[in-house]
Amino acid sequence: MDPAETILQESVEKHQNMIHGFRGVPGVLPERYEEGMAVKHCALSLVGEPIMYPEINTFLRLLHTRCISSFLVTNAQFPEEIRTLVPVTQLYVSVDASTKDSLKKIDRPLFKDFWPRFLGSLKALGEKRQRTVYRLTLVKAWNVEEMLSYSELIAIGQPDFIEVKGVTYCGESSASTLTMANVPWHQEVVSFVQRLVDMLPQYEIACEHEHSNCLLIAHTKFKVEGEWWTWIDYDRFQELVEAHDEQNGGLQSFSALDYMAKTPSWAMFGAQEQGFDPAETRFQRRSNKAKNISGC
After folding, report:
1. Same-domain check for residues 75 and 16
2. Is the distance from CB of 136 to CB of 102 less than 8 angstroms?
3. Which helix (H) or strand (E) holds 286?
4. DSSP run (H or E) holding 209
5. pLDDT in the model for residue 105
6. Which residues make Cβ contacts (< 8 Å) with residue 64, sequence separation at least 6?
7. Are 18 and 129 members of one domain?
8. Contact predicate 193/217, CB 8 Å
9. Average pLDDT, stretch 184-191?
10. Average pLDDT, the chain
């Protein structure tokens, strides 16, 4: 097993080597290149199950000492590991289906007691004080009709946020039977979320990102005087987690409300931009001619 220090050091080096390959590439702004070389965020989600790593808490603390935020996604099969997890900038559980049968079909879990593990993980998530998220992946014709069951699962963990995203088709694979027919249109995702929110009295639709086929449902405690505060104040989180480590050891000493930031208007649900930052510019090359398109 690699020590946490080695994983962090080599991860940063690999990241910087990858970014280095973009130096001088048409469309890459020098200031964005320099920004990309400075690691600020870490997503622990894409390969394997990160919460199984025995030194995960050590690794998270190392990230925070280097002012790198932590986004950890777990498949909701390890409830005790969730309970013993140190503060994370944002903690996700993947809720890929809402019933035992559909979860078995979609996730093909390894454990025979996968459903009790799943429910136990949701309960453990509800005990955390930092930002928590249910990540719902909608698979057309598989799990989009399980509305009541989804609302019951949300009641168990009472997450701060519910991120609802249409499944992404990544091509044919022996490990998956998904096809393009299973990918919902964005309007279908919007319709699902609107119906789901009608069943959740403490939640509302807060944000939208049409390009990612994704919507964000937020607990109304993040709506302050009529304005959404769903974003993250990363500097404040670092201050809070540093004080937590110095004074409280393993205690959950601060909450998600302590490091929330105001949501920009262009990111909110119903905005004309549909999640695209109007200050950004997308670089496109067509017929060997470079072209700037603002607002994309």
Report:
1. no
2. no
3. strand 281-286
4. strand 203-209
5. 82
6. 70, 238, 241, 242, 245
7. no
8. yes
9. 90
10. 88
